[in-house]
Amino acid sequence: MTVRFKLESRAALYGAYAAIATVAFATAFTAATAASAVFGGGNASAFDDLNHGRPLTVLGSEQQCERYGGLPTRWRDDPKAGMVHLHGGDFILGSKLGYEDERPAGDGKTRVNGFWIDQTDVTNAQFAAFVKATGYISDSERQGGAVVFHTPTREEMDARDLAWWSWVKGAAWNHPSGPGSNLDGIMNQPVTMVTQADAFAYAQWLGRDLPTEAEWEYAGKAGHEGADLDTAPRDDHGKPSANYWQGVFPVLNTKEDGHAGLSPVGCYAANDFRLYDMIGNAWEWTKDVYSGPHQSHTNGDTAAVAPLSRKHDTLMVIKGGSFLCARDYCVRYRAASREQQEADLPASHIGFRTVLRDAS
């Protein structure tokens, strides 16, 4: 199945765009899911004995995530603080139900070796600790800005394409809305406005790495296969079980999931590998170069609003979707989803988590 839909910017097309896009996306994904509604069931066995006795980060509700300070138990005393161990195994990389760029290669069977992985996205508190310890200056600070999302007005939508994206001078990981903004009250949110190089620098400080696309997806699928992975994440009561967009993108967010933008990490139940926010909230960097087909509507091409003077960098794979993924735009709140992002382009919806691989 291939879904193609060109986003329009004219205010007069608000209603038509939303209605047509919603029907197109929902129909395509519903049909594909119905045609392959075999669920492989859960297999949490990769969450193994190495996790026994370790102080795991316990989140999973609004109350717990709001109280969380953003630093795992034994932070900096334990080299694996805030991580869980997954032993290696086989899984199907990709999906036959989503976009063309998610199609499995061959039978899709892929093997990964064992690794440790962060339970949550790296938080503002963790990245701030890194910066304090090392004096690191992020790419957004060096570049003098970052790409920031905002809900556009009718006039903005009429004036230009991708009106929800702006290059904001002075925006950075520690100034998420631009000059004058800070991290007060949001130290427990994912750090964003970080490039792949920033993420690598943090990971290397802890002796870790960024996950490959396969490692990330193995962790994101958490032992499951089948059509349920390609539906919008909702719990047994029908409530959204991840932070993604409900409503009409980009003008109306009904906040059915409880959040209009980024949420603190761990506000929703963990997957079967005890990992939080693998879907939604913030996209996550991987270490892999992007290859394969690409759907033109997807992420909104944040590079289009960056200064013309900046050089275009290598396109890398990001995974998991963000708070901006909606049923009428993006539809990438799924473990098999993938998107491209320039390695050196900081944006307000992209963060990361780290891994530590087992010795071979």
From TrEMBL:
The keyword Transmembrane helix applies. Keywords: Membrane, Oxidoreductase, Transmembrane, Transmembrane helix. SUPFAM superfamilies: C-type lectin-like. InterPro entries: CTDL_fold, Sulfatase_Mod_Factor_Kinase, SUMF_dom, SUMF_sf. Residues 81-355 form the Sulfatase-modifying factor enzyme-like domain. It comes from the Bacteria. Gene3D superfamilies: paralog of FGE (formylglycine-generating enzyme). Its EC number is 1.14.99.50. One of its GO terms (molecular function) is gamma-glutamyl hercynylcysteine sulfoxide synthase activity. The chain crosses the membrane at residues 12-39. It is an enzyme of class 1 (oxidoreductase). The keyword Transmembrane helix applies. It holds the Pfam family FGE-sulfatase. This is Hercynine oxygenase. It comes from Paraburkholderia metrosideri. The lineage of its organism: Bacteria, Pseudomonadati, Pseudomonadota, Betaproteobacteria, Burkholderiales. The gene is egtB_2.
